[in-house]
Every structure is written in structure tokens, then in C-alpha cells.
Amino acid sequence: MSERPLHVLFLCTHNSARSILAEAILNHIGQGRFKAYSAGSSPRENQQPNPLGLQVLEHAGISTAGLRSKSWDEFGQPDAPHMDLVITVCDNAAGEVCPYWPGQPATAHWAYADPSAGDGSEAQKHEAFRQTLLALHRRLSLLVSLPSEKLEHALLQGSARELAKS
């Protein structure tokens, strides 16, 4: 692997919950080998990260600095970072036609239920976010622990897709 960290983009529809959690977790545990980003296929106007997501991240000791909801269009710009891996974390975004990603990064889909969906109590909603954080953390820990040769471009897509089964 090169000296540059592996750039990973997490996609969801609104970029307010799952993709934000994944970005923060991977940047926290990535040990400098990974640089995570997140975006949405169609974030709402003035979309912000879900406050419950930010709370569970902070409670877990994971920085929320710089987290913001944004469109995936930002990552198609000429000055955007080159992605090595693009992972959809919601079924809606996985079914959409993605923009062209320069460099043809590896892709994978890791399905997670939307923790912001539902009409439960505040405690139930908080627990849904906590469970999503734990599930993402477990899978991202496996990604981070992969040996360098499994992260080479030629093998990255297979490695990322295998983790979807974890």
C-alpha cells in the first residue's frame, strides 16, 4: 500500500445518520491508514447530522468535529479527494445510480437499518443509534485489521464485500 491513507466514502440517502457514524468511527479507529468521508445522494436542504448520532459518538469518545451533511456531488468535483473505496450503508442509496467516481474505486454495500426511523421513545431512538454505532464499529474494526495486501486496489472490492457478510 502507498503512504497515502486509504480514502473511504460512506454513502446514504440524507447523510445524517449511518454514513456520518461510519465516517466518524473509521476516522477514529483507522490508525492513520484510513481517511473517511461521508455524503448523501439527496440530503435535504439545510440537512444536519442527526443530534442522536452525534450524542452516541460523543458518548463513545469519538470526535464529532467537522461532521456535516453534504451531497455526494462534492466528491465528483475535480478538487475532491480520490476515493479508494465507496460503501453504501443504506438500501436506498445502494439502489440509486451513483455518480462517476474518478479512479474507479472499489465498491461495496453494507446494509444497516435506519436508526432515525420509527416513532419510539427518546430512549428507544437513542438505543437504535447506539446499536447502529456498535454494528458499524464491529465491521469497521474488521476492515482496519485487514493486512495491507487485502487493501491493495485489486483485492479491495472483494475484501469490502466479504465484510458485508460479517
SSE diagram, text form:
Layout: E1 6-12, H1 18-29, E2 34-40, H2 51-59, E3 85-88, H3 91-94, E4 106-109, H4 122-145, H5 153-163
Parallel strand pairs: 1-2, 1-3, 3-4
Output the radius of gyration: 15 Å
Q: Percentage of helical residues? A: 25-40%
| Oligomeric status | single chain
**CATH fold title:** Rossmann fold
Counted by DSSP, the helix tally is 5
Strand content: 5-15%
Strands in their spatial order, largest beta sheet: 2-1-3-4
Q: End-to-end distance, in Å? A: 24 Å
| Main β-sheet description | 4 strands, parallel
Give average pLDDT, whole number.
Answer: 89
Structural class: alpha/beta
User: What is the H/E order?
Assistant: EHEHEHEHH
Bulk shape: globular
* Number of discrete domains: 1
State the CATH class. Answer: Alpha Beta
GO molecular function: arsenate reductase (thioredoxin) activity
Protein name: Arsenate reductase ArsC
Domain Phosphotyrosine protein phosphatase I: 6-146
Keywords: Arsenical resistance, Oxidoreductase
In short:
The protein has a single domain, classed as Response regulator (Rossmann fold, 3-Layer(aba) Sandwich), CATH 3.40.50.2300. 36% of the residues lie in helices and 13% in strands. The chain has five helices and four strands, in the order E-H-E-H-E-H-E-H-H.
